[in-house]
Amino acid sequence: MSDLLCVGLIQTRTPATHAAALAHVAPLVREAARQGARFILTPECTNVLQKDRARLLPTLTSLEGDPVVSGLRDLARELGVWIDVGSALVVREDGKAANRQALIDPAGAIVATYDKLHMFDVDLPTGETARESATYEPGERAVVVQTPLAAFGLTICYDMRFPALHRALALGGAKVITAPAAFTRPTGEAHWEILLRARAIETGSFVLAAAQGGFHEDGRGTWGRSIVVGPWGEVIAGLDHDEPGVLIADLDLAAADKARAAIPALKNARAFTGP
Predict the structure, then answer these.
(1) Phi first, then psi: what are they for 98, rounded to 5°?
(2) Which tens digits make up the pLDDT trace of 137-180?
(3) Taking the model in full, what pTM does it have?
(4) Is residue 256 part of a domain?
(5) What is the per-residue pLDDT for 254?
(6) Which residue is catalytic, options 128, 157, 175, 189?
(7) Contacts of 36 by beta carbon, 8 Å cutoff, 6+ apart
(8) Which of 18, 170, 193, 205 stands the most exposed, by the fewest C-beta atoms within 10 Å?
(9) What is the pLDDT of residues 43-87, one digit of tens each?
(10) CA separation for the pair 169, 203 (Å, rounded)
(11) What does the H/E/C string look like for 113-182?
(12) Adjacent-strand bridge partners of 211
């Protein structure tokens, strides 16, 4: 396993149909590979973005049957790269809907999946409301994937507000944590970079946050500003806009060990009682 890893983050404005979503994301993935990325991360809801449940749910399929996921598996095989589908909205084995991340290897095989643990059920001060749990069944397990590139911990969007999950991933061996997202614009402006840098510092991990950005067909607005954060909390690379695009960064994976040795918070934490 090399200590140097070139990663590509894809920022999208995913359309409201699967066919249009694949046509949108595929050229960006190709561009990331052309620029040398060996690991390419797409945002949350890569396969479709439609907030109307009545329109969305009948279009969902299994992960294996999803046309966008299938197209990205073909691309991984063709380009010889790892593609992490930040999330696809799919139907679970029990018939319920899931917000599911899928890691694809260079042979086109799905080697790991993760269902979003934390549901975004909020009433924002702006008057916006969200009830993710009304549509999706939350996951129940944290996932760390050992690959020839690095050990990856998988999270999705709202998960970034829960430090315990990130600590568990780091203790499970992850040195790179994925944070694909479709962040709202008010919360993105206030909290996006701060939260991602905090999670990186607390765990001594790289954090890769590929985002949806701009105003979508279904009427929602997302923040964009995809970002790569190093294990010391430094911003290694970032986009300063919400337009579709590609962000490339080189990770020195040895920096995670260095950060954890300098600030051994993972080792120093103690159990406690109370309050």
Answers:
(1) -140, 150
(2) 999 999 999 999 999 999 999 999 999 999 999 999 999 999 99
(3) 0.96
(4) yes
(5) 97
(6) 157
(7) 6, 248
(8) 193
(9) 999 999 998 999 999 999 999 999 999 999 999 999 999 999 999
(10) 9
(11) EEECCCCCEEECCCCCEEEHHHCECCCCCCCEEECCCCEEEECCHHHHHCHHHHHHHHHCCCCEEECCEC
(12) 181
Instruction: Indicate if 44 belongs to the active site.
Output: yes
116 in active site: yes
Which H/E stretch holds residue 263?
A: none
The answer as to whether 9 is a domain residue is yes
Question: Domain range holding 49?
Answer: 4-265
- Picking from 211, 245, 209, 244, the residue whose alpha carbon sits closest to that of residue 230 is 209
Judge if the upstream peptide bond of residue 275 is cis by omega within 30 degrees of 0: yes
The answer to whether residue 271 sits within a structural domain is no
- Let me know if 157 is a catalytic residue: yes
User: Does the pLDDT at position 208 exceed 90?
Assistant: yes
Number of domains within the chain: 1
User: Mean pLDDT across the chain, nearest whole number?
Assistant: 96
pLDDT tens for 212-271 read: 999 999 999 999 999 999 999 999 999 999 999 999 999 999 999 999 999 999 999 999
Query: Could you say which of 6, 44, 96, 267 is catalytic?
Result: 44
Q: Which residue has the tokens 């329109």?
A: 55
pLDDT tens sequence across 112-142:
999 999 998 888 777 777 788 889 999 999 9
Side chain identity, residue 193: E
In a domain? residue 273:
no
The pLDDT score that the predictor gives to residue 171 is 98
95: CATH:
3.60.110.10
- DSSP secondary structure code for residue 12 in this structure: B
